[in-house]
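Lab notebook page, bench 4
Experiment: in silico fold of construct C2
Operator: M.H.
Input chain length: 452 residues
Purpose: comparison with the prior construct
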Amino acid sequence: MFQLPGVQTCAGALAGAFLLLLLVLVVRQLLRQRRPAGFPPGPPRLPFIGNICSLALSADLPHVYMRKQSRVFGEIFSLDLGGISTVVLNGYDVVKECLVHQSEIFADRPCLPLFMKMTKMGGLLNSRYGRGWIDHRRLAVNSFHYFGSGQKSFESKILEETWSLIDAIETYKGRPFDLKQLITNAVSNITNLILFGERFTYEDTDFQHMIELFSENVELAASAPVFLYNAFPWIGILPFGKHQRLFRNADVVYDFLSKLIEKAAVNRKPHLPQNFVDAYLDEMDKGQNDPLSTFSKENLIFSVGELIIAGTETTTNVLRWAVLFMALYPNIQGQVHKEIDLIMGHDRRPSWEDKCKMPYTEAVLHEVLRFCNIVPLGIFHATSEDAVVRGYSIPKGTTVITNLYSVHFDEKYWKDPDMFYPERFLDSSGYFTKKEALIPFSLGHWGILAPG
């Protein structure tokens, strides 16, 4: 068949351009995966995917895998998550050195594709360190104080919710049931009172569905396929995969939260806030003429969602672990029961003042926090400038993972860390004593929001 010479030339040029582009992309990716001079050592990495494959295929959970790697490469080692240079901190000393002694440098958040897609690096938990984050954190801390722990009446609201939980449990009349849903309802309602000024009934199926999507997204965000999305965001064009399920869930949740916020704002009195949403809308009004203000309807939705996750998912799982440990260790359960009866008897409700009179119960709860590792890898950090830690050079913009699991099983600070032993939080006189190395919600600027 006759073919014009120009067509062949054009096809050859296109093929050459494609190959050149492919070569450039390959070289660029390989250069991204090179360890900079002085960078912490780490396990061998594969081209393009780095250590994602070994992390995903490991029989161990990610935090356990990372702790094992630290025994080979040291407390500070590096991973390559598909071209994302990552430093992992293990053990209390190095975590404290970075998050406390160099807190400003390690206070940033990584610009990962997942965070960009989900919250556009806005809201509260995933926002970059700067004025926006400082303003949002201040508002959140003040709100949790003024509409929560700082109110004398808030203790009675918690007790009322506790009795609602007990009533719901008693409806099963001794039959087996999954405690997760009921605990989630009770815990989320405490957060809801602060955020919206109202609670939701245990029969509210719409709210139940939203909480289920939240829980599912927490699991999806830590899955290997989502790690792949962070490394290769172009897979987002694929109509299937766990990342797409996560995005669909988020759309449903954000739509539901938007309606809740609109409902909460109906009875709002400007400058007389009754809950977090009211206070946030006041800040939006104040910032209308401030081009640097980050208070917006979109960031309000993101912030509310993140506070629900932070206030509900973590506490719910801690309480579920506590119930499990009481079942596994009936002798410990018996001692807790004995102390409760001794201090409160059988005819009155507990109060916050009882806490300091019940050292063994408090020791048990702290040991649950240590042992269950509710947020084993914390929330990812990033360096805001070049840093030097233990002689290693960590460039600006490096993703940093704090392995809190390794902190709570650090043999330097915990004797027999694999043993559930509440007495480690009691002194020789039987009084409760805090432990410096217990940091279930991290350290530094990004530590627990609610005071007290």
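Observations: DSSP finds 16 helices and six strands in the chain. The radius of gyration is 25 Å.
Next step: discuss at group meeting.
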